[in-house]
Amino acid sequence: MASAISLLLLPSPSPRPLPRGGASGLLCCPRRHRVLLPSPGLAYAPRRLVATAPAPRASNNNDNSGAVEAPDRLVAAVAYLYPFLDGAHHGRFLLAQFPFFSDLLRPLGPAARLFHSSPLTPFLLFLTLYFAVVRNQRAFSRFVRFNAMQAVVLDVLLIFPDLLAQSFAPSGGVGFEIFQSMESTVFLFLLVCLVYGGGACLLGKTPRLPIVADAAERQKHLNGLLVLAANRCRSM
């Protein structure tokens, strides 16, 4: 009883003060496990650990106007004269019916006369264009070599209309009209290739002729023996 009374008479211990911050401090984690939470009044912006490079701008592979020099543009444009002059005879019917084309192509008269001055001139020019330009990676850029190869392939493709003209030459009737249309189509195709290919080269852009461009991409990695043999058969 006495011990119980003495316990009642003893002063009660003072309560321990709460941590600074009120009752919310009771919910805080220990110091070593404390997690820092963002303040609700501030916008949370995560830090970028790795700086991402900006996406490259899309560029047109055919537009090389800022990288092609003027001499390369001129050489590449002149290369398209070779197949046009070699196949200009396919336009004899069209030039007879429409004298406008004759007046339009009159500035090319000296080049045509020089081209046909000798039977060996077309073949020698072919060898020069192929070995001195297409196969010469040190002296000419890829822009010049690709356009020269397109001109070479376009000239080789003239084998087919030439063989057709030699084997199928009607003198009248419906067959003659079909033959005229085919000859005029070949000439117009060569003229379009000359204007489009030469104009694009002068602007510093890479022209891709239909059918010819894919064949040029394949042939430029070969030794060209098949191309040379085909052109030699044409000149014989």
TrEMBL record:
Membrane-spanning segments: 114-134, 146-165, 185-203
Localization of this protein: Plastid, Chloroplast inner membrane; Plastid, Chloroplast membrane
Coiled coil regions, renumbered to chain: none
Keyword Lipoprotein (UniProt): no
Function of the protein: Involved in protein precursor import into chloroplasts.
Organism whose genome encodes this protein: Digitaria exilis
Protein's name in the database: Protein TIC 20
Any single Pfam family the record assigns to this protein: TIC20
Keywords in alphabetical order: Chloroplast, Membrane, Plastid, Plastid inner membrane, Transmembrane, Transmembrane helix
Record's bilayer topology term: Multi-pass membrane protein
Primary location class: plastid
Any one GO CC term of the record: chloroplast inner membrane
Domain of life of the native organism: Eukaryota
Family (UniProt): Belongs to the Tic20 family.
